[in-house]
Design brief:
This protein is mainly alpha-helical. It has 31 helices and 12 strands. It has a 4-stranded antiparallel β-sheet with strand order 2-3-8-7. The protein has a two-stranded antiparallel ribbon with strand order 1-4. Strand 11 and strand 12 form a beta hairpin. Helix 26 crosses helix 27. The termini are far apart.
């Protein structure tokens, strides 16, 4: 039989490919890969270097018993962290095969077990969420109390998400870094409880950081009283005054009116229709006060105060153990609350609650509709006030204090206001733009536009447009980025300044920021016995910073982390400690910003570094999805979440990685949306049951007399929480 040369060549190539594939499949095994690349350091002759012990894993299937370890191994191999430099390397083809096989084992490890679903932990509202919830319940025209955690404030009304467009100009301010006289109007006589701190490598929403001690519980009692007793609690400021607090009209049955007001208020505050037992407690309390001659308005104030101090209001939890409600209804109500606190930092509105009560919220079409609605509501500004500042760790900018002598122009005006106030606004405005305009999240890495104030333009070396301005309000203008050294988040002046010391840059700190924020792979803390890098004045002035770090890279206990962090940090060395560009160090030596990302993508400058990250765009998107999921669930992610993250990334690839498509994918993921009804029935809540209601719930105090039960009366209950 005659074959054309072209066809014959194609057949040869196909046969070669197939034979190689078959050979690869025949020769490849997890245990063989471990023996080739891992056992030498993690089990050879019973010796283990580091924390990973592979001695007992003679077969790949044995790994399924430890999903956490399985995930760790998968990540260090996938990111090219292992094997370390100097050891036999893994070629990219085999590396992909190993990672694929480990992912299969991980899926088998967590599927069909209790590890397959980890619900959002029971947790207290943060201070930020509490203030938002009270404001929404009352439809307040003023703030409840000042919130320094809101790093950027809208002073020109620019934030209009329904428009789908960010304006070209806006005016903003910052209380933490600017003058405190520009705090929004707030309730007189209401003082907040302490700010909730961001968890290490996490968020202030993390459940294990949000406890409720008896002392804090009493603070909540007093806070709730101060709100209803504030002079600002009046018809002018309270939008629902007519609905809840107005005197009853003549001719209307007061007790029927009381029932109607209570039913709606309790449903909103507790994020679900309340059972008869719970309702009867509040109703009996209110009835008793009305029988004592109190007017409807004062009674409702007392009831509202009791509601604000109730665990049902203060705690966010899944209602899996509540009786008297269908499982599907419980799941939908849980999702409504989880979704509302994720995007609005507050309680669900009436529409979201109604959809949940109809048990349709978990359906794809309805969930899509509600998320779209919420993303165009101005309350999504709270998401922008909370998530990006914590994700980017911008709170660190507050403590960044460059040397006053070396960087005199960094400070201006008495009492030494800092340029960081302008710097901090730039990444936050970029994030809001990507969200409002539904742009690709890849623009957070490299964008052709940014937002600059006159002072910030001058700082980056451009001609300022207008007066530099002072520390009160700052005018920002959207402008194109012609130099790719700028644009995106990574090279922003705020990031460069907060990851530097007063006198010099800190490449390892910068590298750790990139690893944790951009790729969601934070490094472990350094060993306690490792000495710090000598200060600039204590070393040979002729050395570059990279040369000074050489000793650390040669230490066996430091090499692993430095191999991961050094390329990420030194890629940013062209930016000095205050975020300005430099070609040379003060000693005249050239800055070397070269490196290799994940042992795969070589770069010689910051532009090539950005390109390298974009070549690994799925890693960045996966990392961002993980941050969003952890923020929304209030917990650290686990191995089962890893599989959900892969699905999220896959779903947004075809949507140009748009921000809204990413948020939709996160909300629709199994960890966020919740398990099947069958699995939910096996999960019983130990909190907020009718039994607990009867024993401990309101009223804890009489708002009329101001008397409080001693905290010891609550110790038994709260200690178990």
């Amino acid at each position: 039989m005659y074959l054309a040369p072209e066809l014959f060549l194609r057949m040869v190539l196909v046969l070669c490919f197939l034979s190689q594939s078959v050979l690869a499949k025949k020769e490849f095994s997890i245990e063989g890969s471990f023996e080739s690349y891992c056992i030498e350091c993690h089990g050879m002759k019973g010796k283990v270097k580091g924390e990973v012990n592979l001695i007992s894993f003679t077969e790949g299937k044995d790994l399924k018993g430890d999903p956490e370890l399985l995930q760790t191994i998968m990540e260090v191999i996938d990111f090219g962290e292992m094997p370390p430099e100097g050891n036999q390397p893994i070629d990219n083809t085999e590396r992909k095969m190993i990672v694929a096989e480990l992912k299969k084992l991980l899926a088998e490890s967590v599927s069909g077990s209790e590890k397959d679903f980890v619900k959002a932990p029971i947790r207290r509202m943060t201070r930020f969420q509490y203030a938002n919830a009270v404001k929404d319940l009352l439809e307040l025209k003023v703030e409840v109390f000042p919130l320094p955690e809101k790093m950027m404030r809208d002073r020109s009304g620019y934030f209009k998400p329904a428009s789908g467009k960010m304006p070209a100009k806006m005016m903003v301010s910052s209380r933490p870094l600017g003058k405190s006289g520009l705090i929004e109007p707030r309730m007189d006589g209401v003082a907040p409880f302490p700010q909730d701190l961001r968890a290490e490598n996490g968020y202030d929403t993390q459940g294990d950081h949000l406890s409720l001690s008896p002392l804090l519980m009493e603070d909540f009692f007093r806070l709730s009283q101060s709100i209803v007793k504030s002079p600002s609690f009046n018809p002018k400021n309270v939008g629902v005054w007519t609905q809840y607090f107005e005197k009853s009209k003549r001719g209307i049955n007061q007790m029927d009116e009381l029932k109607s007001r209570l039913q709606h208020l309790l449903k909103r505050a507790f994020r679900a229709p309340v059972d008869d037992k719970t309702f009867s407690k509040y109703y009996s309390f209110a009835e008793q006060e009305m029988n004592q001659g109190m007017g409807m308005g004062d009674v409702m104030k007392d009831v509202f105060s009791a509601i604000l101090a109730s665990p049902r209001f203060l705690y966010l939890y899944d209602r899996g153990g509540e009786e008297g409600r269908e499982p599907e209804s419980r799941q939908n109500l849980d999702l409504a609350s989880r979704l509302s606190f994720f995007l609005w930092g507050s309680v669900p509105d009436d529409q979201l609650l109604e959809v949940a009560m109809e048990a349709t919220l978990r359906q794809d079409e309805q969930l899509t509709r509600q998320v779209d609605r919420m993303l165009t509501d101005e309350k999504v500004k709270r998401f922008c006030d909370s998530f990006p500042t914590q994700w980017l760790q911008l709170d660190r900018i507050i403590s960044a204090v460059p040397d006053e002598k070396k960087y005199r122009d960094f400070y201006y005006g008495p009492p030494l206001y800092r340029t960081t106030m302008d710097m901090m606004m730039e990444p936050l405005l970029l994030f809001e733009t990507v969200l409002i305009e539904d742009r690709s999240v890849l623009e957070l890495i490299d964008s052709n536009y940014t937002f600059r104030s006159a002072r910030l333009s001058k700082w980056y070396g451009d001609a300022p447009n207008g007066k530099l301005g002072g520390p009160v309000t700052i005018r920002f203008t959207r402008q194109s980025v012609k130099d790719r050294r700028h644009g995106g988040l990574i090279t922003n002046g705020a990031v460069m300044t907060m990851t530097s010391g007063p006198l010099e840059t800190k490449p390892i700190t910068r590298g750790a920021w990139v690893a944790g924020v951009i790729f969601n792979s934070p490094p472990p803390p350094p060993p306690a016995e490792v000495p710090p890098l000598p200060e600039e004045k204590e070393v040979d002035d002729s050395l570059t910073l990279r040369e000074r770090f050489a000793d650390h890279r040669e230490r066996a206990d430091c090499a692993g982390c430095h191999e991961k962090l050094d390329p990420l940090g030194f890629a940013l060395e062209n930016f000095d400690p205050v975020g300005r560009w430099r070609e040379k160090y003060h000693n005249g030596r050239e800055v070397d910003a070269s490196g290799t990302l994940f042992r795969s993508h070589k770069f010689s400058n910051i532009i090539e570094f950005k390109d390298a990250i974009l070549k690994e765009k799925n890693r960045f998107v996966r990392g961002l999805a993980g941050h969003l999921l952890a923020f929304g669930l209030g917990r650290e992610l686990n191995p089962s979440d890893s599989l959900a993250l892969d699905e999220i990334v896959e779903s947004v690839e075809g949507e140009n990685y748009s921000m809204k498509s990413l948020i939709h994918a996160v909300v629709k993921s199994k960890p966020f949306r919740g398990p099947s009804v069958k699995l939910a029935l096996t999960i019983k809540s130990k909190f907020c049951t009718s039994e607990n209601d009867e024993k401990y719930w309101p009223p804890y105090f009489s708002s009329r007399t101001g008397s409080l039960r001693p905290s010891s009366a609550l110790d038994g209950k709260l200690g178990g929480w």
